[in-house]
Amino acid sequence: MNSVSISEIVAKNYKNIRLENGIDFGDLTVLIGANGSGKSNLISLFEFLQYSVAGTIVDDQRGRTNFEDAVFELGGARILDGTLDAPANVGIEYHFAIDQEETTLGIDLLVQGNHRQVIVGREYLDSGRGLSMPPAYYRVHSGEYGGGGSGVISVFSYRNRLLNPMVSPPTHLEQIGDVPVNELALSAIPRLLEGSRFPPEAVPLYGPRGKIVDNALYWSFYNANNMDLERIKTSVPKLGQSDLFLSETGENLALVLFNLIQEDIEFENTVNEAIRDVLPFTRRIRGVPIGSYALTIEWHVEGCSEPFYLNEMSDGTIRMLTWAVILHSPTLPTLIVIEEPELGIHPAWMPILAEWIKGASQRTQVIVSTHSPDLLDSFTDQLDNDGSIYAFQPDSESRSHFTPSRLTESAVTGWLEEGWQLGDLYRVGNPAVGGWPW
User: Fold this and answer.
1) 368 near 418, Cβ under 8 Å?
2) From CA 338, how far away is CA 333, in angstroms rounded?
3) Nearest CA-CA partner of 288 in 333, 257, 246, 249
4) How does the average pLDDT of the chain come out, rounded?
5) What is the DSSP track for 36-89?
6) N or C: which end of the chain has fewer CB within 10 A?
7) Alpha carbons 195 and 183: distance in angstroms, whole number
């Protein structure tokens, strides 16, 4: 597993979901709930952080930052709970486990009342032990530290280290200014500290900050509804590109398959064995060059001397191939998020897909949202495992808001002892499982 993982997200005043009590993420997290219950809204919080730290200015002519683009993608001013009036804050906390130590990134997004602009209202990164103790990191835009545009950063007090070299140096607070409100300090601080009087080794935030950014940059998001099967079938990617991760549309499938086989000689056998669980008559699948510049996929089957190509294969078969490549890759993203992987796939293949997902979760974090009882059946064993299963249900105070509730084995023990699976309970709308629109 990765040395950095997302352990919890807490949010307040965010769209239609109640996340004040947080939602925990284990190696595998499964989300169930009706359409419009907030599952994609939760996933958008991951995308927001990734987009925000991907760089600084993305278009010099427009002068827009990645943060501003990320806010736009998140929904702009509509990120605010629709029952509230601006100005108001949307509070988000990302909790990370970094080398088994917890670190919290807190962000208040201020939705202003005039032009409904969204800026950073407050931001901090710390270990949960306060800024007076190492490791401590930063707080900006907070009134107690000087308000918008300024803040404090924790710096090691090396002078005390000279007096007692055996003691880890304590930290003290240094003022920082010119902190932008249209960019996360998580991205901006290295630039703000250029030319400062304290060297990088004196700033404890660089370690956890770098690990969080590096982790977030390698999160991968897949929504089966966005997989463009026609483009996957007809795409002829150029040979020589270095893609190791499938794109959100899947059109670089041939390139990724080819590159992964070149990188790891065992991968070809691994992905072929996986596909034989779905289509036993498969002899070999491989990415092959067309001439000197392009790639395609050949699908060899028993009894045929000529290979088939993707435009001759069924949509469900191609979908299973994309999941096989994503989930069996020797080079996994630091987080894989998959929405509705069951789309277009035969129910008989759901247990196989679930095992692929569980296998990938032993090597990286995986989050899956699903409407499929057939797929959910195969996650029954996650109730007493490291996984987390959350059902998004209407809030008791407002039917337009939804609260994710963690399913526990104790809540369904009686039914499980009678031979029911989670998907069975989901199908009949058992309130212990929830996730249905009524």
Assistant:
1) no
2) 12
3) 257
4) 89
5) TSSHHHHHHHHHHHHHHHS-SEEETTTTEEHHHHHHHHHTGGGGB-TTS-SSEE
6) C
7) 20
Structure tokens of 367?
């989050």
The two beta strands, 4-12 and 19-24, are antiparallel
Question: pLDDT for 97-127, tens place per residue?
Answer: 998 889 999 999 999 986 679 999 999 998 8
- Report d(CA 43, CA 221) in Å as an integer: 9
Q: Is the dihedral of CA 126, 132, 135, 138 positive or negative?
A: positive
Residue 200's CB is within 10 A of a number of other CB atoms, namely 10
CA gap 342, 372 in Å, rounded = 7
Domain extent listing, the chain: 228-331
Distance CA 349, CA 345 (A): 7
Residue 292 pLDDT more than 90?
no
Q: State the residue for tokens 């993305």.
A: 58
Amino acid, res. 402: F
d(CA 432, CA 411): 6
DSSP classification of residue 310: G
Q: Report which of 18, 23, 10, 14 is spatially closest to residue 395, judged by C-alpha positions.
A: 18
Please report, for residues 40, 275, 288, the alpha-carbon distance to residue 308 in angstroms, rounded to integers and kept in the order given.
36, 15, 12
